[in-house]
Write a structure and sequence with these properties.
- This protein has 386 residues and is mostly helical.
- It is 61% helix and 4% strand.
- The protein folds into two domains: 38 residues; 315 residues, no CATH class.
- α9 packs parallel to α12.
- It is flat, with a radius of gyration of 26 Å.
- The N and C termini lie far apart (81 Å).
- Keywords: Membrane, Transmembrane, Transmembrane helix.
- Pfam families: DUF2333 (PF10095).
- It comes from Aquibium oceanicum.
- This is DUF2333 domain-containing protein.
Length: 386
């Protein structure tokens, strides 16, 4: 009685096996044909081709290693900063000289010969460290030649492979770019009307550089300075600003209205990302088979990762404002929500239907946390505006 059923399933599985073998054969056929052609050639041809193949294998090994190993990655990295537990002081303000254990302080002699001590900007310090994390502790994936070439000409972002780190880095970079813009336009000037600080201006210019430039390009044609070199120069410019700030030779305007504007810009930035997540989640609910879901997820993750440190720095730089307005609890809640979002690190990103029961919906989950963070930033802003 069971023989026909067993035979039916046997034929089905045999057909599936033949189909898989046929697909694998089609994929491997060009490589097998090339290997047969290569075996029949002489060493004058084999030698150069072999060297090229070995170089290509080495490049791909280096590329795959850098896309899979995330050096220095720590969702709770901001807790390591000394300024988090240091007594808050407005950057650039003169404070009483402290002992050898004082954090982020240095003595400078004023025009009257008195000793003054000014504090560094924690926001600027975090921004410089995030750039270092992106381009020094890790290779900048988006401008690597094999990333630009794609998978047989297909953009890596349109495949489910080897693009998560690149999207994450661009998300972190988005937070850095927004921060450098605000440092130039408002935070590094007195009421936005004084002269623009040249170090901050140079840092902003470097961070606005294209994210995909390699050593050579076609538009325009010729040799180029790669993207990581520009970003590394921004680190030096940010450190130069903080050094002058520490010597009471620069300005950081830590007023409440500047904090309002800064939070506005951050809320707007992550609000835009939330809209992107929502659109992808609603229109492309293909579960594990949505090859662009991982790009959207890791960009949003990287953006929150960057803003987590920046907001930690802002809590120090605007410590007097936050304390006087009673914002400590709200600020704690915002940071806790970011940390909760950064704990979501699934092995495979799924963009399933929100009402589905098989495939999860990681984009909707991340979008939920992004909106919660944004709502808290808006609430903090409303308290500051009263």
């Amino acid at each position: 009685m069971l023989d026909p059923i067993v035979n039916f399933f046997s034929r089905v599985f045999q057909a599936i096996g033949r189909g898989i073998g046929w697909v694998v054969g089609i994929i491997l056929w060009p490589f097998m044909a090339a290997s047969r052609w290569y075996a029949r050639r002489g060493w004058l041809i084999k030698g150069p081709i072999g060297i090229v193949l070995l170089a290509l294998i080495g490049l791909y090994g280096y590329f795959i290693w850098n896309t899979q190993v995330w050096s220095g990655f720590d969702p709770e990295y901001a807790a390591r900063y000394e300024f988090v537990s240091a007594p808050a002081a407005n950057p650039g303000d003169s404070v009483a000289p402290a002992g050898d254990g004082a954090a982020n302080a240095q003595s400078a002699r004023g025009s009257e010969g008195e000793i003054r001590t000014c504090t560094r900007s924690a926001i600027t310090e975090v921004a410089a460290d995030l750039i270092d994390f992106n381009v020094n502790q890790n290779a900048w994936i988006s401008s690597m030649i094999l990333y630009k070439l794609g998978l047989f000409g297909i953009d890596w972002d349109n495949t489910p492979f080897l693009d998560n780190k690149a999207s994450f880095q661009r998300g972190v970079n988005q937070a850095i770019r927004r921060t450098t813009v605000e440092l130039v336009d408002t935070l590094g000037r007195v009421r936005g009307t004084s002269q623009i600080d040249q170090s901050l201006q140079d840092a902003r210019g470097a961070m606005q550089f294209d994210e995909y430039t390699w050593y050579f390009g076609t538009d325009p044609f010729g040799f180029k300075t790669p993207t990581p070199a520009f970003y590394r120069s921004a680190i030096d410019h940010l450190h130069a600003f903080n050094t002058r700030l520490e010597a009471c030779d620069a300005v950081f305007d830590a007023r409440a209205d500047n904090l309002v504007q800064f939070l506005d810009r951050i809320a707007s930035d992550i609000g835009s990302t939330s809209a992107i997540l929502r659109e992808r989640s609603e229109l492309y609910d293909a579960g594990w088979f949505d090859v662009r879901a991982d790009d959207r997820f890791w960009f949003a993750y990287g953006q929150l990762y960057g803003y987590y440190g920046v907001l930690k720095g802002a809590r120090h730089d605007f410590g007097d404002v936050i304390t006087s307005r009673g914002l400590a609890t709200l600020w704690d809640t915002t940071e806790d929500q970011i940390v909760s979002a950064l704990k979501i690190t699934p092995f495979i990103i799924s963009n399933g239907d929100e009402a589905g029961w098989i495939m999860p919906t990681h984009l909707a989950t991340m979008g939920f946390y992004v909106l919660r963070v944004r709502s808290n930033l808006v609430e903090i802003r409303s308290v500051l505006d009263r």
